[in-house]
Structure formats: C-alpha cells, structure tokens
Design brief:
The protein is of the alpha/beta class and about 350 residues long. Helix content is about 45%, strand content about 15%. The strands form two sheets. Strands 3, 4, 5, 6, 7 and 8 form a six-stranded mixed beta sheet that branches. A two-stranded antiparallel sheet has the order 1-2. Helix 1 runs antiparallel to helix 2, helix 2 packs across helix 5 and helix 5 packs across helix 10.
Length: about 350
C-alpha cells in the first residue's frame, strides 16, 4: 500500500492507495511463467557454464524493446534510476542473489537471436492453446515476409560488386529486395507465420537480409507451427515440391499461388483466390499493426544482422506477451494494443 498525505486547514488527511505496477513490470513478470522450448542436443564445450538462465535475459530484452534502449550500458543506466519502477525491474533481474555485470548482459544478449525463433514458436503454440483462435474458423496459418529498411544509407549494386563502401553509415550486412508496395528496399526481411482468425497471433518468425528467398527459410517457419494447423497459405515463393512434401508429412495442405501470367485457367483458381484473400488479410493487417506499434515503417534502429534480429524478433516476442496479458485481463486483443504498448 502507498500512503498519500493531503494537507488542508483542519490538519492532514491520509489516504491509502494501492500502488499499481506499470505495464512494463507486468510484462516482465510474465516471463517467469513462460513456456520454454526444449533445448537442442549440443555437444558439451570447454569453458565456464552459464551462471544465469535465459529467462533473465528475455526479461532484459522486454525492457530494451519497450523502453527503446539499444545497449547493455543504456539498460543498466536506466535501471540505476531511483524510481520505484526501476527498483522493481532491477529486483526481477536478480538470480540467487546475484546481478549480471554489463559484460555478461552484452555477451548473453548477443547470442539470444539464436534461440528467439524457437522461443517465439513455443509461445505461439501456447497462445493457440490458450486463446483457441480457430473455434469459428478453419485451422490455417498464413506465411509471408515484410521488408524493413536498413539503418543508414543504401549500398548500391555497382558499389557492392566493386567492394566499395562509399559511406560508413551503410549496413553492409543488409540486402536488396523488391516490394510490390514500396518498390526496391535495402534492408531486411521479417519472415512470419500468423494465425488466420479474428486475432493475429504470430506463430513463427525469422529475420534475414532482404535478398534471402522466402522459400529457403520456409521450412524453419513450418517446423514451429502448432500441430492443429491444417492449411498453410503462402505466395508463389512457397509453391515448391519440398515444401508441399514437408506439409504433407505433418498432415497439412499447402495452398500457394501459382507461377505464370494471370488469369490462370486451371480448375482450382477460384478456391486459391479465396485462400489468397485470407492470407493477404491476415498478413497485411498484422504487418501494419506490428509496424505501427514498433515504428517499423521507419528505418530500423539497429545496425548489423545480429542486433537487428534481436530488435525485430524481440518485438515479436513482446507482442506475444502483450496478447497473453490482455487475454488474462479480459482486454481486447486487437483494438487498443498500440497505446497499451506505447504507454508501457
């Protein structure tokens, strides 16, 4: 309880108020309840074992994303501020009475992008079991990618081929892609699988340079989908025999656009048109909401593949946490999500 003292002519009036925790603190607390994906079998290596769990650095990631911090130094500087919120957040980053140093934060956050896709997939499956999005809809997932602009300048093809970097602001790890909406974009691709339903739940996510073929990374997205998925909706880049076989092995039907000029003359074109509309609505609506919340229409705030993966995949992870929190508190899962996270 928090005591507020009000002064007036007859003396002091003391009012007891219950102090409510901020949205940021509440989302960080959710990480302690997080389902964790099974660890892959990795041969033991020499060196010191990790002292702190991955959960601690997922908590730190939530703070970095929502407070728009870009380094471990900025994180620790903010946590040192003498406010009740920062004191609470700092206490949540202790394990066994110990608090990581700056170098530990830097080292562990730099390798977090390796495990974030599996964590996003695990939380996506958990949310499907919790929210039951397909009670009134077919069990479909929509797969696509969206372009993100690289920080700094662009690296033109003639300079890249010559090995010349004309300006230090250019992110040389990014790549070019041509978007149907925005034309040529120098930057990154955020590959996503999203629930086709009234609520847009991200089920799987990857970030690559923009010149990466969607079909090449599609198997990694498909492996993270919940077992309940029966239809996988994709564009023509998903129309590959190996992806179709992968879906069939898991009892799923791949519905992908066909190559060639329109209009197609085969008998399945009308059914594909319906599925294409469903995929477009799910992907485009989620992309617009996600970019609106995390300023994805602007250039990304990070430079380099690993740091951009940490930011983009971390934002997807925070979006999933927000859905979880709002469901438990009986709040709308679509309307109001942007101001909710902006105010965190």
């Amino acid at each position: 309880m928090e005591i507020t003292r009000l002064q007036f002519y007859g003396g002091d009036l003391m009012i007891l108020q219950e102090r409510q925790e901020s949205v940021l603190v509440l989302l960080v607390r959710l990480v302690d309840r997080l389902p964790v994906p099974p660890r892959p079998a990795i041969p033991s290596r020499r060196g010191r074992r990790n002292v702190y769990s991955d959960r601690l650095f997922l908590k730190a990631l939530v703070i970095l994303i929502l407070r728009r911090l870009r380094s471990a130094y900025e994180l620790l500087s903010v946590l040192e501020q003498p406010t009740s919120e920062m004191q609470t957040l700092r206490s949540l980053l202790f394990e066994s009475g110990r608090f990581p140093c700056r170098r530990t934060f830097e080292r562990r956050l730099s390798v977090l992008p390796r495990t974030l896709p599996a964590q996003i997939g695990c939380l996506g499956r958990f949310l499907v079991g919790l929210l039951h999005p397909w009670q009134e809809h077919g069990r479909a997932a929509a797969c696509d990618s969206t372009a993100l602009q690289a920080k700094g300048g662009v690296w033109h093809k003639k300079d890249r081929e010559a090995g010349v970097v004309p300006h230090s602001s250019i992110d040389t790890e990014a790549g070019w892609t041509k978007s149907g909406w925005h034309g040529w974009v120098y930057g990154w691709k955020l590959h996503l699988a999203v629930v086709v339903a009234n609520v847009w739940i991200p089920l799987a996510a990857l970030l690559t340079p923009a010149n990466t073929d969607d079909g090449e990374v599609a198997p990694e997205l498909l492996r993270e989908l919940p077992a309940e998925v029966r239809y996988v909706l994709g564009d023509h880049l998903y129309n590959r025999d190996e992806l179709r076989k992968l879906c069939e092995e898991r009892g799923r039907e791949l519905v992908a656009s066909r190559y060639g000029k329109y209009p197609h003359a085969d008998g399945g074109k009308e059914i594909r048109r319906v599925f294409h509309k469903l995929r477009s609505v799910a992907n485009e609506n989620f992309n617009e909401q996600f970019k609106g919340i995390f300023d994805g229409h602007e250039k990304v705030p990070t430079k380099g593949l690993k740091k951009t993966q940490l930011w983009a995949l971390g934002a997807i992870f925070v979006y999933q946490l927000a859905l979880w929190y709002r469901f438990e508190n009986q709040l709308d899962l679509r309307a109001g999500l942007k101001p909710f996270l902006k105010a965190a």
